[in-house]
Write a structure and sequence with these properties.
The chain has 237 residues and is mainly alpha-helical. It folds into 2 domains: 124 residues, no CATH class; 72 residues. It has 11 helices and 2 strands; from the N terminus they run H-H-H-H-H-H-H-H-H-E-E-H-H. It has a two-stranded antiparallel ribbon. Helix 8 packs antiparallel against helix 9. It starts with a helix and ends in a 5-residue tail after the last helix. About 10% of the residues have low confidence. One of its GO terms (cellular component) is U1 snRNP. Belongs to the Luc7 family. It comes from Nadsonia fulvescens var. elongata DSM 6958. InterPro entries: Luc7-rel.
Length: 237
């Protein structure tokens, strides 16, 4: 059996590549069923390989990823041998990471839902803004009248008070904008939605280029690959 495997590897990888392998790796090889071997790497794809250098980077896989083991595994499959325990391990691995992603997705969607408390906060800030707008308008009229009648000192005093109102209005306006952005509502405000594949926030107002960058990005593609594997179960065929 060992001679047949070596012959197969020589055909696939070339004699030079095979001879260049460390003798320890050939003589003291690990059995495919050993727990040290990553079954996800053999069967389909290891999640640790999908998200390197992204914010979801899981770090290096603690198990072995050896290409010659994958070649041997695929050779056994082509010969009709089955590895149901490998399929189960791969499926559980996918479930683990997809469950984590789905929890983040659910949490992100909840942030976009407006509760009764959110509605009241928005209404309260809106009322405060409206009252400030009226107060500012009245203050501008008063300053104008004071200037016309020569009450310069009082006009300056009211102008200083008016600046405080403008600053207060700016703070409230930013607060309201933030509420709208998070809840995904409002006329000209950015409308958000959650990507059902990877759980990232998307803007419905993004242009085609930015949307393409997201859908072709490593993070989105990684979760798409895992979901396709999990849904189709093509590795079991």
């Amino acid at each position: 059996m060992a001679a047949e495997q070596r012959k197969l590897l020589a055909q696939l990888m070339g004699n030079d590549a095979l001879d260049s392998m460390p003798s320890q790796g050939r003589d003291q090889r690990v059995d495919l069923h050993d727990n040290k071997v990553c079954k996800s790497f053999l069967v389909g794809v290891c999640p640790h390989d999908l998200f390197t250098n992204t914010k979801q980077d899981f770090g290096p896989c603690p198990k072995l990823h050896v290409e010659q083991y994958k070649i041997e595994y695929e050779h056994h499959l082509s010969a009709g041998k089955e590895f149901p325990e490998f399929d189960v391990a791969f499926e559980r691995d996918l479930e683990k990471y997809l469950r984590d992603c789905d929890r983040r997705l659910e949490a992100a969607n909840k942030k976009l839902e407006r509760t009764a408390e959110d509605e009241e906060r928005i209404a309260a800030v809106t009322r405060d803004l409206q009252q400030l707008d009226i107060s500012i308008a009245l203050a501008l009229q008063e300053i104008e009248v004071l200037g016309q009648v020569g009450e310069i000192s009082r006009a300056l005093h009211e102008t200083i008070k008016l600046e405080d109102k403008y600053l207060r209005r700016e703070v409230l306006d930013k607060e309201l904008n933030k509420m709208f952005e998070v809840s995904g509502i409002g006329g000209g405000h950015q409308k958000l939605q959650v990507c059902e594949t990877c759980g990232a926030y998307l803007s419905r107002l993004d242009n085609d280029r930015r949307l393409a960058d997201h859908f072709l990005g490593k993070l989105h593609v990684g979760y798409r690959i895992m979901r396709e594997y999990y849904k189709e179960g093509s590795w079991k065929e």
